[in-house]
Design goal:
Blueprint: E1 10-14, E2 18-28, E3 37-44, E4 50-56, E5 62-68, H1 69-74, E6 85-91, E7 97-105, E8 108-115, H2 116-129, H3 141-148
Pfam families: SsgA
Organism: Streptomyces corchorusii
Subcellular location: Cell septum
Length: 152
């Protein structure tokens, strides 16, 4: 997401219980001449606790991070997260509200700025789809448990 609403920011939903937001993230600090990176935020009732972030590096390459929906939502109001993902609100150029996302791995780290208003609105749509506290009712606990146990 950019620090302002971008014409390509758009949310999509479908009847199968998914909601996506395609937008542009800005690197922080901004490398000279760099326009940002497209990111697809995805939410699905099939994994109701998580948000999938696909950083679209090139047409053929993407880097995927899966973060907790509640962590991302909390980060719209205050510093949230520990370890490899931290999220916090800030003010961007011109006083525009922005959301910073810091992603870390053993291979490196990156900090991005997103349009806080656009991402907050999209998160509100995910909570309208699956209210907070009701996520567990959507999980297939028997299948999940079976997938975690060793084969018999």
């Amino acid at each position: 997401m950019t620090e302002h609403a971008h014409p390509s920011d758009r949310a999509h939903g479908n009847p199968l219980g998914t909601l996506e937001l395609l937008t542009t993230l800005q690197f922080r600090p901004v490398p000279p001449g760099h326009a940002g990176i497209d990111c697809r935020f995805g939410y699905s009732v099939d994994d109701p606790f998580a948000v999938r972030m696909d950083l679209l590096v090139t047409a053929e390459t993407r880097v995927t991070w899966v973060v907790g929906r509640d962590l991302l939502s909390a980060g719209t109001d205050r510093l949230s997260g520990e370890g490899d993902c931290k999220v916090w609100p800030s003010t961007g150029p011109g006083g525009r509200p922005s959301l910073h996302l810091r992603l870390e791995s053993p291979h490196g780290h990156a900090t991005f700025a997103a349009d806080l208003t656009v991402l907050r609105r999209w998160l509100e749509d995910t909570y309208a789809m699956v209210p907070s506290g009701s996520e567990g009712a959507l999980l297939d606990w028997a299948t999940l448990t079976e997938s975690l146990l060793p084969p018999v």
